[in-house]
Amino acid sequence: MEKQNFRNHVRYYPPHHFIFYPIITALFFIRIRGIIEHKSDRWEWIAITILAFMISWLSFMTRQHYALTCQNRIVRLELRLRYYQLTNQRLEIIENRLSFKQLAALRFASDEELVGLIKRTLEENLSPADIKKSINNWVADTMRV
Description:
Structural class: mainly alpha
């Protein structure tokens, strides 16, 4: 497995990204063609298209919502634990000054860099991308949703 870093840290879930969504997209275009070609059944095709789109969107949003909500809580807890282990202080004291996106970016920092990078982020209000670019010793997160 290639070592994880800023350039390759995005993850895909092949069944959804490369099978389910392409099939749903293709079916959407087939339904649009049905609307155009079958003038006598146009309203039925429109209704089927709208229904299928809503089911597809609901599928996507439900999957994302449940998985990301759980993942976000775990990221916060992981950072709180790591910060406490490194500093003997609670992250909750300063956590409200960081956005979740900043916290999520900080999780890739090694223990040697984490505390300093948190301080720098608080002082300079670094963006998540800037935080990730500042990391020298990337800690891979291969178990993300």
